[in-house]
Every structure is written in structure tokens, then in C-alpha cells.
Amino acid sequence: MPDIQFTYQFEYDKKEVHYLSSPKHRQIGNPHKSIWIVTHDEEFRCFKYTYENEWVVENEAWGFVLNANEKFTVLGQGLNNEELKIAKFKKDPNATEWHGYPCNYMANTYDVPSDIVLKKWVELHRITKAKMSKIQQTLSCNL
Predict the structure, then answer these.
(1) Within its chain, how far is the Cα of 62 from the centroid?
(2) DSSP character at residue 114
(3) Structural domain count, the chain
(4) Which terminus of the chain is more solvent-facing, meaning fewer CB atoms within 10 Å of its CB: N or C?
């Protein structure tokens, strides 16, 4: 089956926002990339939720999806089959499109959400200060 890119757009604050769902984070067995286990539409909804909540710092953003019980949903799978519940979204400063992937903050320090975003999550009671500290230290925590 050929690699398919899905593109999405929406308007936020009178500005058009573009999102690209890249096939490279959907290829099972890719030894270098985490993969999404949610649909393309769910991936986009995660990005849109992230963007609209302004969990964005310059050209990076971090987000999640809550299930019916207000718990973090598993979005993807890491290189060692670990469950990933936080997504990272990026945009090249010279590009118009965002793209994202399920991130593993425990394995990659560059995937640790910004302190600004983590503090917003604490203020919204989505995570505790203790969980924020664990994430900042790249330690596992039960999201």
C-alpha cells in the first residue's frame, strides 16, 4: 500500500492553520520513529485541541487526548512498544504546515514538553505537580 499523506486545515484566531499527517509515523517496524495507533482524524483532532488550547511554544506544541473518563488516551507506540500518551507537534519556521508524532519524553529529552505547557496542564488539573516533575526529569509516570 502506498504511503499516503493526509492534510488538514482549520481557522484559528482569523488565521488558517495547516496540518500534515505524515506516513513516516505510521510505518510499523520503522526502527527510528514512534508510530500513531490512532486514526489520521484522531491525530488531527489531537493537534487541533492542542493548538486551540495554545499549548504552543514558538514552533513546537505538545498535546494529548482525554477519554470519556478524563484519562490520557494512548496515542502511539514507541520504539520498544511502550504506550505513548503525549504528542509533539512541530513546524519548520519557514513552512506553513505542522506535523506531529507520539513522543517519548522518557527516551528523548527533546520530546519533554516545555515547562510553559506543563504548567498550563497543572493549572487545568490535567496533571499534578508531581507528574510534571517526573516528566521534566524524563521519568515514567502514570498519565
Answers:
(1) 5
(2) P
(3) 1
(4) N
- In this prediction the pTM is 0.91
The residue range of the domain holding 106 is 6-111
Tell whether 119 is covered by a domain.
no
Q: Where are the beta strands (DSSP E) in 94-140?
A: 97-103
Residue 24 lies in a domain: yes
Q: State the number of CA atoms in the 13 A half-sphere of 77 facing the CB.
A: 12
The DSSP secondary-structure symbol of 91 reads: -
Query: Is residue 71 in some structural domain?
Result: yes
Is residue 57 situated within a structural domain?
yes
Determine which helix (DSSP H) or strand (DSSP E) holds 135, and give its type and residue range: helix 129-136
